[in-house]
Structure formats: C-alpha cells, structure tokens
Amino acid sequence: MSDFTERARTHADGPEVVDESGTQQAAPNPLDDELRKIDPTDWRTAVAAAKQDGYCFFDWLGAVDQIGRANTFEVVLRLVDRGEAGPRAIRLRTSVPREDPRLDSIADIFAGAGWHERESAELFAITFTGGDPRRLLLADDFVGAPLRKDAVLAARSGVDWPGAKEPGGAPSRRRMVPPGVPEPEVWGDRDPSAAEPDPAEVAESAVGGRVRRRRTGSGGRGPVLRRARDPWGGSPGVGDE
C-alpha cells in the first residue's frame, strides 16, 4: 500500500484516539452521532445521565443563533464514549429564548465545559447559571454579543468593500453594503421617524451585497425587505448555518 493511500485511509476513517486501556481507536464520525433534544429545565439532569451512561469524554459545547427560524439560541453539547465497545458520541441540544437566555452550567459535571460556557456567554450573551461569570476573550469594556446574527459590524460601514469600488475606479453607481452591515433603511442612514427594526430584520438585512429598494407590503404591514445576495456565493437565507 502506498504512503498516499495509507494517508487517505487515515483521513477518511478520522483521527485516532486512545481509550483508557491504551488501545488506539478511530474517532467517532460526527455524522453517526446520536441526537437528543433536551428541555432546558432538564439540561443538567440529561448531561449527568449521559455521563453515567458512559459518555465521559467532553468534546465541545457551542451555541447557534436561530433568528429567522425561531426566536431562540440553540445550545449543543457533544460527548464521546471511548469504551471497549468502540467510540460512540451523542449531541445534546436545547433551546433558550433570545429575550433572556439562561441555562444551568454543567462545569461541575464536565470541567472542560467551563471554558466553552464562558465563550458562549461572551459571544451570544447567554447566561450559564452557576458558572464562571468572568470574561474570557473580550475586553471588560466591550459592549454587545458579536456572534448574534443581529450584531452590526459597524467598523465595516466606513470602508470600501470588495466590489463596491475597483482600484483606481469610481465607486459603483449601485450602493453596496458589506456582510455584517444592514441596509441603510434598516440601520445607519435611515428615516429618524421610522420604528426601530426588530432583530430579525437587522439579521436578514446584514447578508451583504447590493442595496435593493424596499417595497411596502400589502395590508399595511410596513416595508418588506428584499434580500441582497452574498457576492461571495453564500446563501442569503438568514437562518442558514
């Protein structure tokens, strides 16, 4: 077998892990994970039960902003069982409301979760009750939650974004906004008398691309936003992951 073929097989099978007996095993394929949907009030109980069932290796914990699909954040935890039967993994998923996102900390069950909880607390403004409240990545005076989809990347609004102006040329006649900056009628250069946009409208408008005209919806429902397509080929859908 050639060295190239051996490397290809190793890559396809996944990285190897070592169990408690010192035996090397292929890491479980994330596509094979068992998925468990957990009520937020049962979060700690479900995590403790999974550990009791043999899922004793903490892999990661993260959050996803579901705005555009639901007014919630989804918190996901991945645990691995590296027992004699071979590696297996589960993902526990729960949802907390955007208005006051709170979830019990599991750092006393899995010490490694503490760092991940602090990261999600800073980037999404989720409170992990009973966890470590100290800052981890951002400065103490930083305001906002940068990974929320309605967080505006204001610094980008003051610079020419690729495609808006070619080197040595005049600015495009069609106004463009970079990803992370909503269209002018939603944020920034907008009608002072207009109602404040809701977070879903800000997130939907901040996909980047050419600014398009807004039309008034039927039935007096106010303006309807026409989505600008991401010039780098991404989907314009707000809830796309």
From TrEMBL:
Entries under Pfam families matching the protein: Complex1_30kDa
GO MF terms, alphabetically ordered: NADH dehydrogenase (ubiquinone) activity
InterPro entries the record matches: NADH_quin_OxRdtase_su_C/D-like, NADH_UbQ_OxRdtase_30kDa_su
Domain of life where this protein originates: Bacteria
Positions of the UniProt region annotated as Disordered: 1-36, 159-241
Composition skew (Basic and acidic residues), residue ranges: 1-14
Segments forming domain NADH:ubiquinone oxidoreductase 30kDa subunit: 37-155
Signal peptide (from-to): none
Family of the protein in this entry: Belongs to the complex I 30 kDa subunit family.
UniProt protein name: NADH-quinone oxidoreductase subunit C
Lineage: Bacteria, Bacillati, Actinomycetota, Actinomycetes, Propionibacteriales
